[in-house]
Design goal:
4-stranded antiparallel beta sheet; about 5% helix; mainly beta; 35 strands; 7-stranded mixed beta sheet; about 475 residues
Amino acid sequence: MKRIFIPFTILLSTVMVFSSCLNSDDKEVTYYDDSGITSFVLGDLNRTMHTLSSQGVDSTYQATISGSDYTFYIDQEKREIYNPDSLPCGTDVKHVVCTVAAKNGGLVGIKSLTSDSIFSYSSTDSIDFTTPRQMVAYANSAKAYRFYTVRVNVHQEEGDVFNWSDMGRQEPFAAMNGMKTVACGSKLYTFGQKDGQLVAYATDNNDGRTWNELSLPESLSQSFNAYQNILSKDGVLYILQDQQLLHSADGSNWETVSTTNLSRLVAAGTKKLYGISTSGTMMASADNGTTWTDEKMDTSSEWLPEGNISYACMPLRTNEDIERVLIAGNRNVEAYPNDRYAVVWSKTEDLSGDAEDNSWMFYTQTSDSYYCLPRLSDVMICMYGDVLLAFGGNGIGACTESAFSKIYVSLDGGITWKGTSTYTVPEELAGMSQSFTSAVDANNCLWIISGSGQVWRGRLNRLGWTSIQKKYYQ
Protein backbone atom coordinates (compact mmCIF):
# COMPACT_ATOMS: atom_id res chain seq x y z
CA MET A 1 0.00 0.00 0.00
CA LYS A 2 1.16 3.55 -0.64
CA ARG A 3 1.05 5.94 2.27
CA ILE A 4 -0.79 9.14 1.29
CA PHE A 5 -0.38 11.37 4.33
CA ILE A 6 -0.28 11.67 8.05
CA PRO A 7 -2.72 14.57 8.43
CA PHE A 8 -5.93 14.24 6.41
CA THR A 9 -5.43 17.60 4.63
CA ILE A 10 -2.71 16.20 2.37
CA LEU A 11 -5.13 13.67 0.90
CA LEU A 12 -7.78 16.31 0.37
CA SER A 13 -5.25 18.49 -1.46
CA THR A 14 -4.33 15.53 -3.63
CA VAL A 15 -7.98 15.07 -4.55
CA MET A 16 -8.22 18.74 -5.60
CA VAL A 17 -5.10 18.48 -7.79
CA PHE A 18 -6.45 15.32 -9.33
CA SER A 19 -9.74 17.12 -10.02
CA SER A 20 -7.90 19.92 -11.86
CA CYS A 21 -6.27 17.34 -14.12
CA LEU A 22 -9.64 15.86 -14.93
CA ASN A 23 -10.83 19.30 -16.10
CA SER A 24 -7.94 19.70 -18.52
CA ASP A 25 -9.91 18.11 -21.37
CA ASP A 26 -12.51 20.91 -21.10
CA LYS A 27 -15.33 18.44 -20.36
CA GLU A 28 -17.85 19.37 -17.71
CA VAL A 29 -17.33 17.31 -14.51
CA THR A 30 -19.75 17.23 -11.57
CA TYR A 31 -18.36 16.85 -8.07
CA TYR A 32 -20.44 15.55 -5.19
CA ASP A 33 -20.16 16.40 -1.53
CA ASP A 34 -21.73 13.19 -0.17
CA SER A 35 -19.60 10.17 0.66
CA GLY A 36 -20.03 6.56 1.71
CA ILE A 37 -18.98 2.99 1.03
CA THR A 38 -21.61 1.27 -1.11
CA SER A 39 -20.22 -2.25 -1.53
CA PHE A 40 -17.67 -4.56 0.07
CA VAL A 41 -16.81 -7.93 -1.51
CA LEU A 42 -14.09 -10.42 -0.53
CA GLY A 43 -11.93 -12.20 -3.07
CA ASP A 44 -10.75 -15.81 -2.84
CA LEU A 45 -9.51 -16.87 0.60
CA ASN A 46 -7.23 -19.60 1.89
CA ARG A 47 -8.52 -22.04 4.49
CA THR A 48 -6.54 -24.56 6.53
CA MET A 49 -8.34 -27.89 6.68
CA HIS A 50 -7.70 -30.77 9.10
CA THR A 51 -7.94 -34.44 8.22
CA LEU A 52 -6.97 -37.81 9.68
CA SER A 53 -4.69 -40.25 7.88
CA SER A 54 -5.49 -43.96 7.70
CA GLN A 55 -3.26 -44.33 10.78
CA GLY A 56 -5.32 -41.75 12.67
CA VAL A 57 -2.65 -39.03 12.47
CA ASP A 58 -3.91 -35.46 12.19
CA SER A 59 -2.66 -33.49 9.19
CA THR A 60 -3.58 -30.27 7.42
CA TYR A 61 -4.00 -29.10 3.85
CA GLN A 62 -4.93 -25.83 2.15
CA ALA A 63 -8.22 -25.17 0.38
CA THR A 64 -9.61 -22.12 -1.37
CA ILE A 65 -13.04 -20.66 -0.66
CA SER A 66 -14.85 -17.94 -2.56
CA GLY A 67 -15.19 -14.87 -0.37
CA SER A 68 -17.89 -13.47 -2.64
CA ASP A 69 -20.23 -16.20 -1.34
CA TYR A 70 -20.36 -14.37 2.02
CA THR A 71 -22.46 -11.22 1.83
CA PHE A 72 -21.30 -8.14 3.70
CA TYR A 73 -23.91 -5.81 5.10
CA ILE A 74 -23.34 -2.06 5.27
CA ASP A 75 -25.06 -0.23 8.10
CA GLN A 76 -24.86 3.41 7.01
CA GLU A 77 -26.39 4.62 10.25
CA LYS A 78 -23.89 2.91 12.54
CA ARG A 79 -21.15 3.03 9.88
CA GLU A 80 -20.40 -0.66 10.24
CA ILE A 81 -19.57 -3.28 7.61
CA TYR A 82 -19.74 -6.98 8.53
CA ASN A 83 -20.63 -10.46 7.35
CA PRO A 84 -23.51 -11.99 9.37
CA ASP A 85 -22.67 -15.42 7.97
CA SER A 86 -19.20 -15.98 9.41
CA LEU A 87 -16.40 -17.44 7.32
CA PRO A 88 -15.53 -21.09 8.05
CA CYS A 89 -13.15 -21.97 10.84
CA GLY A 90 -9.54 -21.93 9.67
CA THR A 91 -10.00 -19.18 7.07
CA ASP A 92 -6.96 -16.90 6.70
CA VAL A 93 -8.13 -13.30 7.17
CA LYS A 94 -4.64 -11.91 7.69
CA HIS A 95 -4.13 -11.78 3.93
CA VAL A 96 -7.37 -10.59 2.37
CA VAL A 97 -8.00 -9.05 -1.02
CA CYS A 98 -11.29 -7.20 -1.31
CA THR A 99 -13.20 -4.96 -3.69
CA VAL A 100 -14.62 -1.80 -2.13
CA ALA A 101 -16.69 0.85 -3.90
CA ALA A 102 -17.54 4.37 -2.73
CA LYS A 103 -20.48 6.56 -3.69
CA ASN A 104 -20.04 8.61 -6.88
CA GLY A 105 -16.60 7.13 -7.43
CA GLY A 106 -15.12 8.62 -4.28
CA LEU A 107 -11.76 7.56 -2.91
CA VAL A 108 -11.36 4.86 -0.23
CA GLY A 109 -8.63 4.67 2.40
CA ILE A 110 -7.76 2.36 5.26
CA LYS A 111 -6.39 3.33 8.66
CA SER A 112 -3.07 1.88 9.83
CA LEU A 113 -3.07 -0.82 12.52
CA THR A 114 -0.35 1.01 14.47
CA SER A 115 -1.02 4.73 13.97
CA ASP A 116 -3.53 7.30 12.78
CA SER A 117 -2.10 7.28 9.27
CA ILE A 118 -4.44 6.64 6.35
CA PHE A 119 -3.29 4.57 3.39
CA SER A 120 -4.85 4.35 -0.02
CA TYR A 121 -6.96 1.27 -0.62
CA SER A 122 -6.15 -0.95 -3.61
CA SER A 123 -8.15 -3.94 -4.82
CA THR A 124 -4.90 -5.84 -5.44
CA ASP A 125 -3.31 -5.27 -2.03
CA SER A 126 -3.54 -7.77 0.83
CA ILE A 127 -5.17 -6.44 4.00
CA ASP A 128 -5.02 -7.81 7.55
CA PHE A 129 -8.56 -8.24 8.91
CA THR A 130 -7.70 -10.30 12.00
CA THR A 131 -8.98 -7.30 14.00
CA PRO A 132 -11.67 -4.74 13.06
CA ARG A 133 -10.30 -2.14 10.64
CA GLN A 134 -11.20 1.48 10.00
CA MET A 135 -11.93 2.36 6.38
CA VAL A 136 -12.82 5.82 5.12
CA ALA A 137 -14.75 7.00 2.06
CA TYR A 138 -14.02 10.50 0.67
CA ALA A 139 -16.45 12.46 -1.45
CA ASN A 140 -15.05 13.20 -4.91
CA SER A 141 -15.40 16.90 -4.13
CA ALA A 142 -12.94 16.37 -1.25
CA LYS A 143 -15.36 18.22 1.08
CA ALA A 144 -16.63 15.27 3.12
CA TYR A 145 -15.64 11.83 4.36
CA ARG A 146 -17.14 8.95 6.39
CA PHE A 147 -15.33 6.39 8.56
CA TYR A 148 -16.53 2.77 8.79
CA THR A 149 -15.60 -0.11 11.09
CA VAL A 150 -15.09 -3.27 9.05
CA ARG A 151 -15.37 -6.67 10.78
CA VAL A 152 -14.61 -9.89 8.93
CA ASN A 153 -16.23 -12.55 11.13
CA VAL A 154 -14.72 -16.04 11.24
CA HIS A 155 -16.04 -19.03 13.15
CA GLN A 156 -13.67 -20.16 15.87
CA GLU A 157 -14.91 -23.76 15.87
CA GLU A 158 -15.92 -26.35 13.30
CA GLY A 159 -19.67 -26.25 12.73
CA ASP A 160 -20.36 -29.97 12.41
CA VAL A 161 -18.67 -31.10 15.62
CA PHE A 162 -20.88 -32.39 18.42
CA ASN A 163 -19.65 -32.01 22.00
CA TRP A 164 -21.01 -33.34 25.30
CA SER A 165 -20.74 -31.64 28.70
CA ASP A 166 -20.96 -33.68 31.89
CA MET A 167 -23.43 -31.87 34.18
CA GLY A 168 -22.61 -34.12 37.11
CA ARG A 169 -24.49 -36.79 39.01
CA GLN A 170 -27.97 -35.74 40.18
CA GLU A 171 -29.07 -37.95 43.05
CA PRO A 172 -32.88 -37.55 42.60
CA PHE A 173 -32.75 -39.25 39.22
CA ALA A 174 -30.78 -42.22 40.52
CA ALA A 175 -33.79 -43.14 42.68
CA MET A 176 -36.32 -43.08 39.81
CA ASN A 177 -37.70 -46.25 38.25
CA GLY A 178 -38.91 -44.51 35.11
CA MET A 179 -38.66 -40.94 33.84
CA LYS A 180 -39.46 -38.52 31.05
CA THR A 181 -37.97 -35.08 30.36
CA VAL A 182 -39.86 -32.30 28.57
CA ALA A 183 -38.47 -28.98 27.35
CA CYS A 184 -40.94 -26.16 27.90
CA GLY A 185 -40.03 -22.51 27.44
CA SER A 186 -36.77 -21.74 29.23
CA LYS A 187 -36.90 -24.81 31.47
CA LEU A 188 -36.48 -28.56 31.48
CA TYR A 189 -38.94 -30.67 33.47
CA THR A 190 -38.25 -34.27 34.44
CA PHE A 191 -41.12 -36.39 35.74
CA GLY A 192 -40.73 -39.93 37.02
CA GLN A 193 -41.56 -42.70 39.48
CA LYS A 194 -40.07 -42.63 42.95
CA ASP A 195 -41.26 -44.77 45.88
CA GLY A 196 -44.57 -45.46 44.13
CA GLN A 197 -45.36 -41.80 43.50
CA LEU A 198 -45.02 -39.28 40.70
CA VAL A 199 -42.27 -36.71 41.34
CA ALA A 200 -41.00 -33.86 39.21
CA TYR A 201 -37.89 -31.65 39.03
CA ALA A 202 -37.06 -28.56 36.98
CA THR A 203 -33.95 -26.68 35.91
CA ASP A 204 -33.19 -23.72 33.66
CA ASN A 205 -31.97 -24.55 30.18
CA ASN A 206 -28.71 -22.74 30.96
CA ASP A 207 -28.18 -24.65 34.22
CA GLY A 208 -28.64 -28.41 34.42
CA ARG A 209 -26.69 -28.78 37.67
CA THR A 210 -29.41 -27.46 39.99
CA TRP A 211 -32.75 -29.27 39.88
CA ASN A 212 -35.61 -28.05 42.06
CA GLU A 213 -38.34 -30.45 43.14
CA LEU A 214 -41.84 -29.35 42.19
CA SER A 215 -44.81 -29.54 44.53
CA LEU A 216 -47.44 -31.64 42.73
CA PRO A 217 -51.13 -31.90 43.66
CA GLU A 218 -51.75 -34.98 45.79
CA SER A 219 -54.06 -36.58 43.24
CA LEU A 220 -51.41 -36.20 40.54
CA SER A 221 -48.58 -37.47 42.71
CA GLN A 222 -50.53 -40.72 43.20
CA SER A 223 -50.61 -41.32 39.43
CA PHE A 224 -47.06 -42.65 39.30
CA ASN A 225 -47.32 -43.74 35.62
CA ALA A 226 -48.49 -40.32 34.42
CA TYR A 227 -44.89 -39.41 33.54
CA GLN A 228 -45.36 -41.44 30.35
CA ASN A 229 -48.06 -39.01 29.21
CA ILE A 230 -46.51 -35.57 29.49
CA LEU A 231 -45.58 -33.15 26.73
CA SER A 232 -45.46 -29.42 26.03
CA LYS A 233 -47.07 -27.12 23.49
CA ASP A 234 -46.74 -23.32 23.18
CA GLY A 235 -45.04 -22.99 26.55
CA VAL A 236 -47.64 -25.06 28.43
CA LEU A 237 -47.24 -28.52 29.98
CA TYR A 238 -49.91 -31.17 29.39
CA ILE A 239 -50.29 -34.43 31.29
CA LEU A 240 -52.82 -37.26 31.11
CA GLN A 241 -53.91 -38.56 34.52
CA ASP A 242 -56.40 -41.44 34.42
CA GLN A 243 -58.12 -39.98 31.30
CA GLN A 244 -58.13 -36.49 32.83
CA LEU A 245 -56.15 -34.02 30.73
CA LEU A 246 -54.43 -31.36 32.85
CA HIS A 247 -52.30 -28.38 31.91
CA SER A 248 -49.81 -26.18 33.75
CA ALA A 249 -47.56 -23.20 33.09
CA ASP A 250 -45.04 -24.00 35.84
CA GLY A 251 -45.24 -27.75 36.53
CA SER A 252 -46.67 -27.22 40.05
CA ASN A 253 -50.11 -25.67 39.54
CA TRP A 254 -52.36 -27.86 37.41
CA GLU A 255 -55.87 -27.34 36.05
CA THR A 256 -58.19 -29.83 34.39
CA VAL A 257 -58.74 -29.24 30.67
CA SER A 258 -61.13 -32.09 29.87
CA THR A 259 -62.19 -35.64 30.53
CA THR A 260 -61.12 -37.84 27.63
CA ASN A 261 -61.18 -41.42 26.45
CA LEU A 262 -57.43 -41.38 25.89
CA SER A 263 -55.04 -44.02 27.14
CA ARG A 264 -51.88 -42.19 26.00
CA LEU A 265 -50.91 -38.60 25.20
CA VAL A 266 -48.31 -38.98 22.46
CA ALA A 267 -47.47 -35.83 20.45
CA ALA A 268 -47.88 -32.11 19.91
CA GLY A 269 -47.79 -30.31 16.60
CA THR A 270 -48.13 -26.65 15.76
CA LYS A 271 -51.92 -26.82 15.72
CA LYS A 272 -52.90 -30.03 17.47
CA LEU A 273 -52.38 -32.40 20.36
CA TYR A 274 -52.42 -36.12 19.57
CA GLY A 275 -53.26 -39.18 21.64
CA ILE A 276 -54.20 -42.84 21.47
CA SER A 277 -57.70 -43.74 22.62
CA THR A 278 -58.66 -46.55 25.01
CA SER A 279 -59.95 -48.44 21.96
CA GLY A 280 -56.56 -48.17 20.24
CA THR A 281 -57.15 -45.46 17.65
CA MET A 282 -55.41 -42.15 16.98
CA MET A 283 -57.18 -38.99 18.16
CA ALA A 284 -56.44 -35.27 17.85
CA SER A 285 -57.44 -32.01 19.51
CA ALA A 286 -57.29 -28.66 17.69
CA ASP A 287 -58.34 -26.65 20.79
CA ASN A 288 -55.54 -27.55 23.21
CA GLY A 289 -57.23 -30.64 24.58
CA THR A 290 -60.80 -29.42 25.18
CA THR A 291 -62.37 -31.67 22.51
CA TRP A 292 -60.98 -34.73 20.73
CA THR A 293 -61.85 -36.29 17.36
CA ASP A 294 -60.88 -39.55 15.67
CA GLU A 295 -57.99 -39.55 13.21
CA LYS A 296 -57.74 -41.58 10.02
CA MET A 297 -55.17 -44.40 9.92
CA ASP A 298 -53.91 -46.29 6.89
CA THR A 299 -53.05 -49.47 8.83
CA SER A 300 -54.47 -51.60 11.62
CA SER A 301 -54.15 -50.17 15.13
CA GLU A 302 -52.25 -53.30 16.17
CA TRP A 303 -49.15 -51.51 14.84
CA LEU A 304 -49.52 -48.54 17.20
CA PRO A 305 -46.81 -48.30 19.90
CA GLU A 306 -47.68 -49.30 23.44
CA GLY A 307 -44.58 -48.09 25.29
CA ASN A 308 -41.42 -45.93 25.00
CA ILE A 309 -43.38 -43.45 22.87
CA SER A 310 -41.65 -40.30 21.66
CA TYR A 311 -42.38 -37.88 18.86
CA ALA A 312 -40.92 -35.24 16.55
CA CYS A 313 -42.47 -32.40 14.59
CA MET A 314 -40.83 -30.66 11.64
CA PRO A 315 -41.72 -28.57 8.58
CA LEU A 316 -41.33 -30.18 5.18
CA ARG A 317 -38.17 -29.09 3.42
CA THR A 318 -40.19 -28.34 0.30
CA ASN A 319 -43.00 -26.41 1.99
CA GLU A 320 -42.81 -24.73 5.40
CA ASP A 321 -46.62 -24.48 5.51
CA ILE A 322 -46.81 -28.25 5.84
CA GLU A 323 -45.41 -30.09 8.85
CA ARG A 324 -44.75 -33.75 9.50
CA VAL A 325 -45.53 -35.24 12.91
CA LEU A 326 -43.88 -38.56 13.77
CA ILE A 327 -44.46 -40.91 16.67
CA ALA A 328 -42.24 -43.89 17.44
CA GLY A 329 -42.17 -46.54 20.13
CA ASN A 330 -42.38 -50.23 20.86
CA ARG A 331 -45.21 -52.71 20.78
CA ASN A 332 -45.96 -54.85 23.83
CA VAL A 333 -43.05 -57.26 24.35
CA GLU A 334 -45.21 -60.14 25.57
CA ALA A 335 -47.70 -59.84 22.72
CA TYR A 336 -45.05 -59.26 20.04
CA PRO A 337 -41.84 -60.92 21.24
CA ASN A 338 -40.31 -61.25 17.76
CA ASP A 339 -40.40 -57.61 16.70
CA ARG A 340 -36.98 -56.50 15.51
CA TYR A 341 -37.84 -52.87 14.87
CA ALA A 342 -39.67 -50.10 16.66
CA VAL A 343 -42.89 -48.89 15.03
CA VAL A 344 -42.99 -45.48 13.35
CA TRP A 345 -46.04 -43.53 12.22
CA SER A 346 -46.26 -40.14 10.54
CA LYS A 347 -48.85 -37.60 9.47
CA THR A 348 -48.59 -34.39 7.44
CA GLU A 349 -50.59 -31.36 8.53
CA ASP A 350 -51.30 -28.40 6.23
CA LEU A 351 -50.96 -25.25 8.35
CA SER A 352 -51.96 -22.80 5.65
CA GLY A 353 -55.72 -23.32 5.51
CA ASP A 354 -58.61 -25.78 5.33
CA ALA A 355 -56.87 -28.55 3.41
CA GLU A 356 -58.21 -32.09 3.55
CA ASP A 357 -57.15 -33.93 6.69
CA ASN A 358 -54.51 -36.58 6.00
CA SER A 359 -54.28 -40.08 7.44
CA TRP A 360 -51.65 -41.36 9.81
CA MET A 361 -49.27 -43.58 7.83
CA PHE A 362 -47.44 -46.59 9.20
CA TYR A 363 -43.89 -47.09 7.92
CA THR A 364 -44.18 -50.68 6.76
CA GLN A 365 -41.52 -53.21 7.81
CA THR A 366 -40.55 -56.08 5.52
CA SER A 367 -38.28 -59.09 5.81
CA ASP A 368 -35.59 -57.34 3.77
CA SER A 369 -35.70 -54.10 5.75
CA TYR A 370 -32.22 -53.11 6.91
CA TYR A 371 -32.55 -49.50 7.94
CA CYS A 372 -35.72 -49.38 10.04
CA LEU A 373 -35.55 -47.91 13.53
CA PRO A 374 -34.16 -50.62 15.89
CA ARG A 375 -36.37 -51.86 18.72
CA LEU A 376 -34.41 -50.43 21.63
CA SER A 377 -35.49 -50.12 25.24
CA ASP A 378 -36.54 -46.52 26.00
CA VAL A 379 -36.10 -45.76 22.30
CA MET A 380 -36.27 -42.01 21.71
CA ILE A 381 -36.56 -39.88 18.56
CA CYS A 382 -36.18 -36.12 18.28
CA MET A 383 -35.82 -33.39 15.70
CA TYR A 384 -32.35 -31.90 15.99
CA GLY A 385 -31.43 -29.08 13.62
CA ASP A 386 -32.63 -30.32 10.26
CA VAL A 387 -32.33 -34.08 10.89
CA LEU A 388 -34.05 -36.72 13.00
CA LEU A 389 -32.01 -38.48 15.67
CA ALA A 390 -32.75 -41.68 17.58
CA PHE A 391 -31.01 -43.75 20.25
CA GLY A 392 -31.84 -46.07 23.11
CA GLY A 393 -30.85 -48.80 25.52
CA ASN A 394 -30.33 -52.50 24.86
CA GLY A 395 -32.25 -54.13 22.05
CA ILE A 396 -35.41 -56.00 22.96
CA GLY A 397 -37.28 -58.80 21.20
CA ALA A 398 -35.40 -59.75 18.04
CA CYS A 399 -33.17 -56.68 18.20
CA THR A 400 -29.64 -57.42 19.43
CA GLU A 401 -28.20 -53.88 19.49
CA SER A 402 -26.19 -52.84 22.56
CA ALA A 403 -27.29 -49.90 24.67
CA PHE A 404 -26.10 -46.55 23.33
CA SER A 405 -23.89 -48.23 20.76
CA LYS A 406 -24.67 -45.43 18.31
CA ILE A 407 -26.95 -42.54 17.48
CA TYR A 408 -29.10 -43.10 14.42
CA VAL A 409 -29.93 -40.32 11.97
CA SER A 410 -32.78 -40.11 9.45
CA LEU A 411 -32.67 -37.73 6.49
CA ASP A 412 -35.93 -38.88 4.89
CA GLY A 413 -38.53 -38.14 7.54
CA GLY A 414 -38.07 -41.28 9.63
CA ILE A 415 -38.25 -43.94 6.91
CA THR A 416 -34.62 -45.06 7.13
CA TRP A 417 -32.22 -44.79 10.07
CA LYS A 418 -28.44 -45.15 9.87
CA GLY A 419 -25.62 -44.81 12.37
CA THR A 420 -23.69 -41.56 12.14
CA SER A 421 -20.18 -40.48 13.06
CA THR A 422 -21.24 -36.83 13.50
CA TYR A 423 -23.29 -37.60 16.61
CA THR A 424 -21.89 -39.84 19.32
CA VAL A 425 -23.04 -40.72 22.82
CA PRO A 426 -20.89 -40.17 25.94
CA GLU A 427 -18.59 -43.15 26.48
CA GLU A 428 -19.84 -43.43 30.05
CA LEU A 429 -23.31 -44.41 28.79
CA ALA A 430 -22.17 -47.27 26.55
CA GLY A 431 -23.84 -50.51 27.62
CA MET A 432 -25.89 -48.77 30.33
CA SER A 433 -28.79 -50.93 31.55
CA GLN A 434 -30.72 -48.26 33.50
CA SER A 435 -33.62 -46.36 32.01
CA PHE A 436 -33.03 -42.88 30.65
CA THR A 437 -34.83 -39.86 29.24
CA SER A 438 -33.89 -37.20 26.72
CA ALA A 439 -35.07 -33.88 25.32
CA VAL A 440 -33.97 -30.99 23.10
CA ASP A 441 -34.26 -27.54 24.67
CA ALA A 442 -34.78 -24.06 23.21
CA ASN A 443 -31.00 -23.55 23.02
CA ASN A 444 -30.61 -26.51 20.64
CA CYS A 445 -29.01 -28.58 23.38
CA LEU A 446 -29.63 -32.32 23.51
CA TRP A 447 -30.02 -33.65 27.06
CA ILE A 448 -29.66 -37.21 28.34
CA ILE A 449 -30.60 -38.08 31.92
CA SER A 450 -29.93 -41.63 33.02
CA GLY A 451 -31.38 -43.74 35.79
CA SER A 452 -27.90 -43.80 37.35
CA GLY A 453 -28.20 -40.05 37.95
CA GLN A 454 -25.86 -38.95 35.15
CA VAL A 455 -26.88 -35.77 33.31
CA TRP A 456 -25.33 -34.88 29.96
CA ARG A 457 -25.84 -31.87 27.70
CA GLY A 458 -24.64 -31.86 24.10
CA ARG A 459 -24.80 -29.53 21.16
CA LEU A 460 -23.70 -29.37 17.55
CA ASN A 461 -21.42 -26.33 17.36
CA ARG A 462 -23.23 -24.55 14.55
CA LEU A 463 -26.57 -24.81 16.33
CA GLY A 464 -25.14 -22.71 19.14
CA TRP A 465 -23.91 -19.87 16.95
CA THR A 466 -25.56 -16.50 17.43
CA SER A 467 -27.33 -15.04 14.41
CA ILE A 468 -26.29 -11.46 13.73
CA GLN A 469 -29.09 -9.11 12.77
CA LYS A 470 -29.17 -8.64 9.00
CA LYS A 471 -30.94 -5.29 8.96
CA TYR A 472 -28.82 -2.73 7.18
CA TYR A 473 -28.98 0.57 5.35
CA GLN A 474 -27.62 0.96 1.86
